[in-house]
Amino acid sequence: MRTLNPDRSLGFGMGLPLVALQLDFLDPALLPLLLIVAGIGLSLAEALAPGAHFVVLGVALLAAGLVGLLLGPFAGPIVLALLVFLFGALALYGYREFDIYGGKGTGQTSDSDSLKGKTGRVTERVTPTDGEIKLDSGGFNPYYAARSLHGEIPEGTEVMVVDPGGGNVVTVESLDLVTEDEIDRELRRGREARGDERQREEETERA
């Protein structure tokens, strides 16, 4: 799953008011409302796809839109763009400082492969066709649709993700059925995936 880099998202958010100004197809008075709607939409998208980093831009747009409504006619496109940048910088700082997704210093992984090897608990009975689990340190929305490899897994059972399945429906196995060697192997793969993700993020920040 491709995600939005929280640092680069600020530039994208600042561009929204300026694009509207250049195209001259939108009443400037409606720009704050547009930012509010976009901010709410991105925040909801983050809830549906945790780790996609929409929350930083969503908060920035929402806050800038609300302040824009208070400023009234003084809230032109340039002012709104500056507000998006200001609130985006504050949101990004809070995102990192308060470690929203856990694992401070490691960054939130941005691809479904990182789910492999993670453990959690069954919240709705898991069968080969449906079910739900809650992952440990699963971020803003730790609940995932799940299915089992073999048979049924009752509610409350501790499980491990053996196949992330693109992040939409994960395949899990009860920890009671997973041998110690398999657990170590899956955890090692998870650590390697997180290490690769950190390296990619560092390269992106340096670029």
TrEMBL record:
GO terms, molecular function: peptidase activity
Alphabetized UniProt keyword annotations: Hydrolase, Membrane, Protease, Transmembrane, Transmembrane helix
Ribonucleoprotein among keywords: no
Cited InterPro entries: Membrane_assoc_protease (IPR052165), NA-bd_OB-fold (IPR012340)
Region listing for Disordered, in residue ranges: 181-207
GO biological process: proteolysis
Segments crossing the lipid bilayer: 25-45, 52-72, 78-95
Top-level taxon: Archaea
Biased composition (Basic and acidic residues): 185-207
The keyword Hydrolase is assigned to this record: yes
Cellular component aspect of the GO annotation: plasma membrane
Listed name of the protein: Membrane protease regulatory membrane protein
